[in-house]
Amino acid sequence: MKNYFKNMTLKRSTNTIFLILSILLSVYFLWFNSKAPFSKLITTMCAVFFEIGMKYNLSFAQTTFKAGLRLGRKGLHLILGASMLFIFYGGYMCYNIATMAGFFIAGTMAQDQVAIQAETRENQKMIELQQLNENIAILTKALDVEVETTFRSKSAELEAKIEKKKAERNALLDTMVLTDERKVMEKNPSRSVAEAIGIPLGTMLAWIYGFFAAGICLILIITSEDLPEETPMTESLPIVDDKKELITYIDAAIRDTGKLNGNPRIMEETGLSLDQCIKFRDWLTRLKIDGVQAVTIKQGGGDINLPKRDILKAIEGV
User: Fold this and answer.
1) Which residue among 164, 198, 232 closes a domain?
2) Is residue 101 within 8 Å of 206, Cβ to Cβ?
3) Three-state secondary-structure class, residue 184
4) Does 141 map to a domain?
5) Same domain as 64, residue 117
6) H helices then E strands: how many in the chain?
7) Dist. CA 235–CA 299, nearest whole Å
8) Apex 227 CA angle, 223 and 232, nearest 5
9) What is the pLDDT of residues 127-176, one digit of tens each?
């Protein structure tokens, strides 16, 4: 872990940032399935450990798959195993896309509901305003008729009612957003787009944020690293002084066909002693890289299970 942050590259920092983002969105989504504080704590721990575990799953699958490719037909079991891990990671991607998209969809829909409720209230006020205007018009007409007569017994009463309705109208206008430029409602742009293309808002948001979440998963994949290589260690490692002779032995022992030369031929080509050849053959027989046996000894010879460059790379760690 210390070396991970010490050797922080752009690729590694990008992966770390998007992994943290994925964890936070996953935790937020799962929190809605629990109410009690202890349940939320357990949910948070599960989300964090699951996300980190799937990061390891991807790295392990990549490493195993590449090791299988290096072995060719002999690494078919590794390729199949890695493929199963990739399939499982694909299922995780579906979960991840759903949880991340759910966060943004929930937020957008909540804002949209607030806007709809405000718009509904404004529409109701418009109806009330229209009714007040009609009442004022009726009362004003009645007052005009009253004025035309000589009695005018109800003029004062009608004028009082008109003034009351006008006061109610002014009070209503003061509460309406449409009459105050500082409080004008801003319509949800997502709803505007959905209405323009003729699809439900939820469907459009699922496509938009699903694509966004899929992009986060893609970044996590392309910035993922293979597991760090471990130096192969066996009980029969030769001493450091023999490293040069060991490299000479490996070069002479491994043919281009992937077969092993016998010790007599190696002694003839390199001038190494029989004891050295036996010692190096024993070391090579015990060597494993990524859990794969380096050679398979058979009657009269043997087969190489790993590329020569990987074996020479292992010698560098001796």
Assistant:
1) 198
2) yes
3) coil
4) yes
5) no
6) 11, 4
7) 24
8) 155
9) 877 887 888 787 777 767 666 665 556 777 777 777 787 777 777 777 76
182-239 per-position pLDDT tens digit = 555 556 677 777 777 888 877 888 888 888 888 888 998 998 888 876 544 444 444 4
Q: Give the 3-state secondary structure of residue 295.
A: strand
Where do we find the tokens 């690293």? 225
The residue range of the domain holding 134 is: 113-198
Same domain, 165 and 252: no
- Please name the residues in contact with 9: beta carbons below 8 A apart, sequence gap of 6 or more: none
Map residue 11 onto helix, strand or coil.
helix
Q: Which residues have CB under 8 Å from 104's CB, separation 6+?
A: 205, 209, 212
Instruction: Provide the phi-psi class of 258: left if phi over 0, else alpha when psi is between -120 and 50, else beta.
Output: left
Whether 280 maps to a domain, the answer reads yes
Query: Tell me, what amino acid is at 18?
Result: F
Token pair in block for residue 302: 């043997």
Residue type, 261: N
Q: What is the pLDDT of residue 235?
A: 40
> At 166, which amino acid appears?
K
Looking at every residue in the chain, the average pLDDT score rounds to 77
Q: Half-sphere exposure of residue 53, counting CA atoms within 13 Å on the CB side?
A: 9
pLDDT in tens, 261-309: 888 888 888 888 888 888 888 877 877 776 677 787 776 567 777 777 7
Asked if residues 15 and 225 have their Cβ atoms less than 8 Å apart, the reply is yes
Structure tokens at 305: 């299970």
pLDDT recorded at residue 2: 55
Q: How far apart are CA 296 and CA 184, in angstroms?
A: 79
Matching residue, tokens 């190096």:
280
Which amino acid type is present at position 181? E
Give pLDDT, residue 82: 92
